[in-house]
Specification:
The complex is a heterotrimer of chains A (178), B (353) and C (247). Chain B is of the alpha/beta class. Chain B has helices at 9-19, 34-43, 57-69, 80-95, 122-126, 144-161, 171-175, 215-235, 255-270, 288-297, 311-318, 338-352; strands at residues 4-8, 24-27, 50-53, 74-78, 100-106, 137-139, 164-170, 177-181, 207-208, 239-242, 249-252, 275-280, 282-284, 300-305, 325-329. Chain B contains twelve helices and 15 strands. In chain B, helix 1 (9-19) runs parallel beside helix 6 (144-161). The termini of chain B are far apart. Chain C has 247 residues and is of the alpha/beta class. In chain C, 38% of the residues lie in helices and 16% in strands. Chain C has a seven-stranded mixed sheet with strand order 2-1-3-4-6-5-7, sandwiched between helices. In chain C, helix 8 links the parallel strand 5 and strand 6 (205-210). In chain C, helix 1 (23-37) crosses helix 8 (181-199) and helix 4 (94-100) crosses helix 5 (102-110). The longest helix of chain C is centred in the last third of the chain and has 19 residues, at 181-199. Classes of the chains: A alpha/beta (178), B alpha/beta (353), C alpha/beta (247). At the B-C interface, helix 3, helix 4 and strand 9 of B face strand 1, strand 2, helix 3 and helix 5 of C.
């Protein structure tokens, strides 16, 4: 019985909710229990946005993630707000292109990925979220990249099918980043 | 089994309503339930249905009243402040014995309040909300799957008993995504001989009406309505028992509070505390008997709510104050953490020893 | 030979209206229109709150009683249930339509909702015993304007047809009166047209009928009919305010 609780946080517009949806669908396709809970309201536009994702082998109790196994932080306020809530032995993945601070905890694994910079260089500046998600697949996820084609087919709307390929590239960049 | 899809709670309500044969939606935008309206606006024109954005919640519920008068399935949805505006219409629908489905995705109050989750419309929903002696069937989903299945069932119960069914959800339930299976089964047919659809010159005219200036007649109508309510109380109570077999402490919680409580109960069990939960699925009718039975062996109760303590009164009434009931709550859009619930369980356990 | 009979769409029950009240005439005109158009079997009427609250007992077609002011919203639901087959009318007074139900009125009009509204304007709240209405005239004495309606204190009367005529939405707006034979004939024509428009799918049609209230105006029935000519029509001129198809 394994439960993974993930908190993804950043500014509205950075794709926090989409990254969460990707992970939730991935869990669903892997026949696991999942829940996805966004913050909502006016702060979604320009303020901070976050989303709780739980992936579990057992029925999920609370969908609210207060002590994440993994935090994906896309801006400094989110890192400051949530870094101490991460469980000991957990993981923090942050966008080091936007966050210059280092995490001063030695009981968690921290991955510094300059996602915004990498996304810009790769020609899809809006996909830093998926680069960080790619790192999550490498660092935490049990299945990894194996089923991402199926997942992207579910989460990318048919009208935007042309975006599947660059999402895949972004995931790969993050996954392979050392 | 049908394929599971990942859906927001609000969207699950909308799709389940369509599966239940609802082809008319009237509403007014308000956070955190606007996805229902947006979903209906997209879907209804494609299936020969009608989505109409009303000029106000007051107008919306009265459009529902008109549509329900014709015997077809109809719904509206709103959040707390909007439900207050609909209260007039809810009372008129009760007085006219019209079936409909109304969704309240609650937010913090009173007044304009906030937009974060709340359960502080419990009194309003379970006591009727508008003026006069009446009840609605109040259904409290605790998962996105239940957002769908209770919506489907809500339409059926509404028609069966000629009452309004209310889905009493909260912002969390509306906004969260979980896997949903949308295989809902057959839609039951109910008698509609009372509906106004034009006499076709083949019958005496039908009148949809809540006015009765003859006091004896109005009293009789109330008596008849409450006979129906009695049948609902006898036949339609729904609740879930969780780890109740040997429980000495009984948590009572619905909706998101029950989800948080489950985590706390598992942690308490790991510490050897015999605690379980009764989760009301129907808030009206309230699972009185289940609680009364639980009071025979449980020594204490905890009511976990996103309100200043509303359901706790029903818990105390159901167990006739035989056992102490402790309130564990947050309000204003805050949600009790599982740590808070666990602490309350431990505190209550300490009092028993 | 029968020279005069009750319209078939009117129920054979005694009305509760006061002696000299013109609601009875207006009910009859509505019923005659329904008869002549042969639509009783598909018509659903909406009764208001106000003096005509019992209208649901007076028409033989299916009827719905609405909350105060909400008739246009209720009618919207009834119409949208089956737009091809339902003929829907509301019968509303001035407090119902122009005060508490103003939003419902304006928005049904702006949507060009394909319904027929019979708006009875008698410049007073009748059922509650003669209080100031949104259409009470400046200087008019009522229970709640005992020194005469003072526009500086409580504003001016609402001219419903004039106001709605500014909207793009409505199909047809006409003001008529029922205080003499000539006006009654014109009123009949307007009411029938308002139903015909709906049958033809043209949209929102409202007929404002200047009506008398001898009881609460404190006048004899005869004097009340004269007061419509002397006081009301000068303030509320009769005529067609909008007729899109004729434009």
């Amino acid at each position: 019985m394994k439960t993974t609780q993930i908190l993804i946080a950043g500014f509205g517009g950075q794709g926090v909710l989409f990254a969460g949806k990707f992970l939730a669908y991935k869990g669903l396709l892997e026949d696991r229990q999942v829940s996805w809970l966004p913050s909502y309201g006016p702060e979604m536009r320009g303020g901070t946005a976050n989303c709780s994702v739980t992936i579990s082998d057992a029925p999920i109790g609370s969908p609210i993630v207060t002590k994440p196994d993994c935090l994906i932080a896309m801006n400094l306020p989110s890192l400051l707000k949530y870094k101490d809530t991460v469980k000991a032995g957990g993981t923090i993945i942050l966008d080091s292109a936007l966050i210059s601070e280092k995490v001063e905890r030695d009981d968690v694994n921290v991955y510094y990925v300059p996602a915004t910079k990498l996304a810009g260089e790769a020609g899809f500046p809006t996909l830093a979220n998926m680069i960080l998600t790619g790192k999550y697949l490498a660092a935490v996820d049990e299945v990894g990249m194996a089923d991402i084609d199926d997942v992207l087919a579910k989460v990318v709307p048919p009208k935007k099918a042309n975006l599947v390929e660059i999402n895949k590239q972004a995931l790969t960049i993050g996954h392979d980043y050392e | 089994m049908a394929e599971k899809v990942l859906m927001k709670g609000n969207e699950a309500i909308a799709e389940a309503a369509i599966l239940a044969g609802c082809r008319h939606y009237f509403g007014y935008p308000i956070t955190p339930q606007t996805e229902i309206a947006a979903y209906m606006a997209k879907r209804m024109p494609k299936i020969g249905g009608c989505f109409l954005q009303a000029e106000s919640e007051v107008a919306a519920i009265n459009m529902v009243y008109g549509l329900a008068s014709t015997g077809k399935r109809v719904m509206t949805s709103s959040s707390s402040p909007g439900i207050s505006l609909k209260a007039e219409g809810l009372s008129y629908m009760a007085g006219s014995d019209l079936p409909a489905l109304v969704v309240n995705v609650q937010r913090g109050g009173p007044g304009l309040g906030g937009i974060q989750p709340s359960q502080s419309d419990y009194f309003q929903a379970t006591r009727g909300g508008g003026h006069g002696d009446y009840h609605m069937i109040v259904l409290a989903p605790a998962s996105v799957q239940e957002m769908a299945s209770l919506t489907f069932k809500g339409f059926d119960l509404a028609e069966k008993y000629r009452v309004t069914s209310m889905i009493l959800a909260d912002g969390t339930m509306g906004q969260m995504m979980e896997p949903v299976e949308l295989e809902m089964g057959e839609v039951n047919e109910h008698d509609k001989s009372w509906a106004v659809t034009g006499t076709k010159m083949a019958r005496k005219h039908n009148i949809i009406n809540s006015l009765s200036l003859n006091s004896e007649q109005l009293e009789q109508q109330n008596f008849e309505r409450f006979e129906r309510y009695k049948k609902i109380e006898e036949n339609e109570v729904m609740y879930e028992e969780f780890m109740m077999d040997d429980a000495e402490i009984c948590v009572v919680a619905f909706g998101i509070a029950s989800r948080v409580s489950k985590n706390a109960i598992m942690e308490a069990r790991a510490k050897g505390i015999k605690v379980g939960m009764i989760r009301p699925i129907t808030l009206w009718p309230f699972p009185k008997k289940a609680l009364e039975t639980a009071a025979e062996k449980c020594k204490a109760f905890i009511s976990v709510e996103l309100s200043m303590g509303q359901m706790i009164e029903d818990v105390e009434l159901a167990i006739r104050c035989k056992r102490p009931v402790t309130l564990c709550n947050r309000v204003g859009g805050m949600i009790p953490s599982s740590e808070q619930v666990l602490a309350t369980i431990e505190q209550v356990q300490g009092g028993l020893e | 030979m029968i020279v005069f009979e009750k319209p078939k769409a009117l129920a054979d029950v005694p009305f509760h209206y006061c002696p000299g009240c013109t609601h009875g005439i207006i009910h009859r005109l509505v019923a005659e229109a329904i008869d002549e158009l042969g639509i009783e079997g598909q018509t659903i009427g909406v009764a208001p709150v106000g003096c005509s609250v019992f209208a649901y007992n007076y028409f033989n077609c299916d009827m719905v009683e609405a909350a105060h002011g909400r008739a246009p919203a209720v009618a919207t639901g009834l119409k949208r249930s089956d737009p091809e087959n339902h003929i829907v009318f509301t019968y509303q007074g001035d407090g119902d339509l122009a005060s508490i139900g103003m939003a419902e009125t304006v928005h049904a009009a702006t949507r060009n909702e394909n319904i027929t509204i019979i708006f009875v304007n008698n410049a007073i709240y009748g059922m509650t015993g003669g209080q100031m209405a949104p259409t009470s005239l400046p200087g008019q004495v009522t229970q709640t304007s005992p020194y005469g309606r003072d526009p500086k204190h409580c504003g001016y009367p609402v001219k419903v047809c004039e106001m709605l005529s500014q909207l793009e939405g409505p199909e047809y707006l006409e003001r008529v009166a029922v205080n003499n034979i000539k006006n009654i004939r014109a009123a009949k024509k307007a009411i029938k047209k308002a139903f015909e428009n709906q049958i033809q799918g043209k949209g929102f049609s409202l007929v404002e009928v200047l009506s008398s209230c001898p009881t609460n105006w404190g006048m004899t029935p005869q004097k009340a009919l004269e007061w419509i000519d002397e006081a009301m029509i000068p303030y509320y001129p009769l005529g067609v305010y909008k007729d899109r198809s004729a434009e």
